[in-house]
Amino acid sequence: MYAGGQQLENKKDPNESSAQKKETEISKSRLDSEITKKENCHKCKRVKNVIWFTDNVFWNDITGDKRWWILCIDCFVYLAEREYKITGWRLLPEFPWKKIK
Q1: How far apart are CA 53 and CA 69, in angstroms?
Q2: Which of 27, 29, 59, 77 has the smallest CB count inside 10 Å?
């Protein structure tokens, strides 16, 4: 799994059944493929962007005439904080979410 562009250590649960292990491996594989198949950020060229989205009106206001198709979170936050006095950000998973054991 990836966090902040770095691969995290995979910890094994000795009590996990073979079906659970298979499901976990499939989920990790999907996550890796979702991250790596995305295009680079069109502003900074960062690879391995996470899938994220924001309100369409906010996106259009922040990106202005540039109309980038893909921005990493860091570039979008940088542009937004130049435009508005933002004191913090809220991050929520898209529903429905399922815990990976």
Answers
A1: 11
A2: 29
The owner of tokens 């109309």 is 67
Q: Say how far apart CA 66 and CA 78 lie, in whole Å.
A: 15
Paired residues of 3 in beta bridges:
6
- Secondary structure of the chain in HEC code, one letter for each residue: CEECCEECCCCCCCCCCHHHHHHHHHHHHHHHHHHHCCCCCCCCCCCCCCCCCCCHHHHHHHHCCCCCCCCCHHHHHHHHHHHCCCCCCCCCCCCCCCCCC
Residue-wise pLDDT for 57-91, tens only, equals 999 999 888 777 889 999 999 999 999 999 999 98
Whether the bond into 96 is cis, omega within 30 of 0 = yes
Query: Whole-prediction pTM value?
Result: 0.57
* CA atoms 57, 34, 6, 9: torsion sign: positive
